Amino acid sequence: MPYKSIAKEVVILAVISLATAFGVNWVSPKGIAFVGQWDTAQGVITAKAKNDMVAHELELDDIIMVKNIYDHQQAIFVDARSQEDFREGHIRGAVSLPIGEFESRIDQFKASYPLSQYIVAYCSGRECDDSHELAQRLFEHGYADVSVFIDGYPAWMAEGFPIE
Amino acid sequence: MNKLPVFYHPIVELALRLFIGVTFVFASYHKMVEPAHFAKIIYGYYLFPDFSINLLAIGLPYIEFFCGLALIMGVYPRSAALLINMMLAGFIVAISINLIRGHEFDCGCFSFGEPGYTSSARQLLLRNIGYLMMGVYVLFYQHRRILCVRQSGSFLKDLSIS
Prior knowledge:
The complex is a heterodimer of chains A (164) and B (162).
Chain A: H1 3-27, E1 59-60, H2 63-71, E2 76-79, H3 83-88, E3 95-96, H4 102-112, E4 119-122, H5 130-140, E5 146-149, H6 152-158
Parallel strand pairs in A: 1-5, 2-3, 2-4, 4-5
Chain B: H1 10-33, H2 35-43, H3 50-73, H4 77-100, H5 121-140
């Protein structure tokens, strides 16, 4: 085996690949940061893409505060998970608006809830960014007051809070 | 050439080389266009330090793509096979560790729940072992390769388009 030649070729292939990779990542609108946010203690995880939907300033990370909002009926809770997950269990009184069916359901949603309505979006926890995407798409449709309950349904259920 | 056993026939090498090459080019496509999604898949193994996840998500798909392309074009087939085998061995180790500790990533996210989008860890493991066996064959193939522009060794020495 010509080890020296193979080593040289490996370096050539690696350099071409990595130069292209980082070049494309630099110009692509879907490019990501060199270091993402992968610590759930700091909020919903994200690769920090240029088209990132995660906005940490919307996040509600104190479940007691969220329960307080729920108890005082200050917001409607909107579930971004699939219809199937919603049927299996959800925060009591929550409205289902699966991110995968957003376009087909948003008109009906808007007919039911005014744009001034305070909305708390949630999904399945800090490894799930669907609730963030839902929040951004609701903003695009004119809703002005949307928060994201980042611990989502699993934490709500684990606390023994109302579900159905 | 005809005296070689069927297992070592250049057509077998060519078929396996093209199969792996096309597979890796196709496999790299979605990772290249959705690096954030691929980064989340890497995160889901819970094996890599946070600082390395995005760097892997940016670099690996292009190594897969160019190595696959090199195999298809018959440029540096041994070196491309070597890199592909290293990546496959890495995937196999990562999947095995998670199978042993009973961990399978499920973030409950829409993009991870689409039908046919993800495979089970066992399926992935078996598939990657199959690819690795083919890759090892291509790497250590000692006879003349057909439709191969540049073999390892002297520059253009093994030019052997038949």
